[in-house]
Amino acid sequence: MKNYLVLGLVLISFLANAQETQQVSVEKSLNSVQVGLLSLSFQNETRLDRKITLRSEIGLSTGSSTAKYPDGKTETSFLIVPYINIEPRWYYGLDRRNRLNKNTINNGSNYFSLLTTYVPSRMALVNTKDFEAAPFISIIPEYGIRRTSIRKHFYSECSAGIGYRHNFFNKPYTYTIDENEVVINFQFKFGYIF
Fold it and tell me: 118 pLDDT band (50/70/90 cuts)?
């Protein structure tokens, strides 16, 4: 009889811990502005499931484009272009951080994501030369870390990944890049949630 009683108490304890862990969830909706080394953006992150969000982002990024002419001369242009990101995220470390009594406010956790970016570079806000840069779309699986600072509104993110990029070429131009490329992405950004 004592064995059944001990087994019952262990089972109740296990179920209570499991229910406590399941109560931790990503935020329902977050709006923020974010600054990176080469970008400025606005994001919305919406909960799809307990640990899964869909992050949409619109912003401005800097970059460069190089044109190669038939006589062998090359020119490089500095660009400021708009971009759009759609990124499903899985915050897999949420339960573990909660068990360890670490901060999970505003989705502070480790995550895996699939970053999809479209850059319509023909709509460049700044283009220092008189030639067109190729627009592109990229799809990059990423691993990231997001942490909220002591103040609830500030956070930092670091992410990295390797993926695929397709450049949309305009036929009259000759480009110094391939139509399909492997890209490496590394980002470190700070943000403010309002």
Answer: very high
Rounded Cα–Cα distance for residues 150 and 168 (Å): 44
Other C-beta atoms within 10 Å of 194: how many? 7
Two tokens at 30?
């977050």
Which tokens sit at 1? 């009889």
User: What residues contact 66, with CB distance under 8 A and at least 6 apart?
Assistant: 74, 75, 76, 77, 176
Mean pLDDT to the nearest integer, 20-31: 80
> Is residue 124 classed exposed, middle or buried when 0-12, 13-18 and 19+ CB atoms within 10 A define those classes?
buried
Does 165 have pLDDT greater than 80? yes
Give dist(CA 62, CA 5) in Å, integer: 66
pLDDT at residue 154 is higher than 50: yes
Q: Taking the CB of residue 117, how many other CB atoms lie within 10 A of it? A: 20
Q: Rg of the chain's alpha carbons, rounded to an integer?
A: 23
* Tokens found for residue 110: 């480790």
Find residue 15's DSSP bridge partners.
none
0.90 surpassed by pTM:
no
The pLDDT value given to residue 21: 46
